[in-house]
Design goal:
Strands 1, 2, 3, 4, 5, 6, 7, 8, 9 and 10 form a 10-stranded mixed sheet that branches. The chain folds into 2 domains: about 220 residues, Spore Coat Polysaccharide Biosynthesis Protein SpsA, Chain A, CATH 3.90.550; about 80 residues. The protein is α/β, with parallel strands linked by helices. β6 and β7 form a beta hairpin. The longest helix is centred in the C-terminal third of the chain and has 18 residues. The radius of gyration is 20 Å and the shape is globular. α1 packs parallel to α2, α7 packs parallel to α8 and α8 packs antiparallel against α10.
Length: about 325
C-alpha cells in the first residue's frame, strides 16, 4: 500500500484552459497509482478556468486532493515553478492542461525511480490526438533506455513536460524552469538536470500520454524556437564546454534540419530550403544517417517546382515522415 512518502504531485499549468482542463484532470483521477495530489496553477486566465478550478477543488477526494493556485499571467515556466514549490510529494509529474495521461503512466514511472536511486527523471512517449481528442496513428517514442546529455542536445526526445515524472527535490535544487526563456526552456532544464550527479534520465519506450495538437500552438513558431535553441546551446557551451565542443556541429545540423521541417510546415519555403542547406553543409555525414533529413530536404526542394507537382510530392513526403 502506498504511503505519503510515495505521494506524486501532478502540476498542471493552465491558461485559458477551460475547454480541456476537465479532461486532463479526469485522466489523473483515472490513474492506477495512489496517492496523488493535483496542483492546478491558473496563470491569469481570462475565461472560466478559475471558476472550473474552484469546482474541481470542491470535488476533491481524500486520496486525490486538488489544489488551485491563482497568479497573474507570467507564462508557463512561472506557472510550473509555482507548482514545484507547492508540491508536497517526493515525486512530481507535469501535465499540460490540454493533454491527458494513460492510466498506468504514473505507476510505471514511479516504479523506475524506486528501483534505481541514480535515476532522477523518467520520460515517456506519447500518442498524438486531434484538437477534438481523437487518437491518431502518430506517436513520439524514443527507444527505451538512458537519455544522455548529447542525445538531448541532438534531439529533445522528451518533447513536452507532460512526458516527465521527476524527483521533486532535484527540480527544486535546479530552481525549476528559467522564467526568462520563452522557447526551449524545457530543454534547457532537462540538460541541466542530466548533468546532476543523480540526474540520470530514463526513457520508457512506449506512449503513456496523449499530446493534443491545436492550431496556434507555440511549436508552430519556428523562428523563436530556433532562437531559443541557440540560447540553450550558448548556455550549455558555457556550463559544460567539454560535452558540447565535440558535438556542436552535429547538434547544429540536426536542429537546423528539424527547424527546416517546421519552416516548411509553416509555408516558409525559402527559409526551409536555406535551413536544410545549412544543415547539410554543417555535418553531412550525420545527416546521411537520418531518414528525416532526406524527407525534409526533398520536401523543401520540391517547393521550387510548379505548385501542382509540389503538392503531389509534399503529400507523399508527409505520409512518410509526418510526426518528425
Amino acid at each position: 500500500m502506498s504511503s505519503e512518502t510515495d505521494l506524486v504531485s501532478v502540476v498542471i499549468p493552465a491558461y485559458n484552459a477551460e475547454r480541456f482542463l476537465g479532461e486532463a484532470v479526469a485522466s489523473v483521477r483515472a490513474q492506477s497509482y495512489r496517492p496523488i495530489e493535483i496542483i492546478i496553477v491558473d496563470d491569469g486566465s481570462r475565461d472560466g478556468t478559475a471558476a472550473l478550478i474552484k469546482r474541481l477543488e470542491a470535488e476533491s477526494m481524500a486520496n486525490l486532493p486538488i489544489r488551485g493556485i491563482f497568479q497573474p499571467n507570467a507564462g508557463p515556466s512561472a506557472a510550473r515553478n509555482a507548482g514545484i514549490e507547492a508540491a508536497r510529494g517526493p515525486y512530481l509529474a507535469f501535465l499540460d492542461a490540454d493533454d491527458r495521461l494513460h492510466p498506468d503512466k504514473i505507476a510505471l514511472q514511479v516504479q523506475v525511480l524506486k528501483e534505481n536511486s541514480s535515476i532522477g527523471l523518467v520520460n515517456a512517449g506519447w500518442r498524438v490526438i486531434t484538437e477534438t481528442g481523437v487518437a491518431t496513428k502518430r506517436t513520439g517514442i524514443a527507444p527505451e533506455g538512458a537519455l544522455e546529455f548529447e542525445t538531448l542536445l541532438f534531439r529533445n526526445e522528451i518533447g513536452t513536460p507532460s512526458a516527465v515524472l521527476a524527483r521533486t527535490a532535484l527540480l527544486r535544487q535546479l530552481g525549476g524552469f528559467d522564467r526568462g526563456m520563452r522557447y526551449a526552456e524545457d530543454l534547457e532544464l532537462w540538460l541541466r538536470f542530466v548533468l546532476l550527479k543523480d540526474g540520470k534520465i530514463w526513457n520508457i519506450g512506449r506512449p503513456l500520454f496523449d499530446r493534443r495538437e491545436r492550431e496556434g500552438q507555440a511549436t508552430r513558431n519556428w523562428r523563436p524556437m530556433l532562437e531559443g535553441w541557440l540560447e540553450v546551446l550558448s548556455r550549455m557551451k558555457a556550463k559544460a564546454p567539454e560535452r558540447v565542443r565535440p558535438i556542436e556541429a552535429a547538434a547544429r545540423a540536426l536542429n537546423d534540419r528539424y527547424t527546416a521541417f517546421l519552416a516548411y510546415a509553416a509555408g516558409d519555403y525559402p527559409a526551409a530550403r536555406a535551413l536544410a542547406l545549412r544543415a547539410w553543409c554543417a555535418a553531412p555525414l550525420v545527416l546521411l544517417r537520418s531518414r528525416h533529413a532526406y524527407m525534409t530536404s526533398l520536401a523543401a526542394l520540391a517547393s521550387l517546382l510548379p505548385r501542382p507537382l509540389h503538392e503531389v510530392i509534399a503529400a507523399k513526403v508527409r505520409r512518410v515522415r509526418e510526426g518528425a
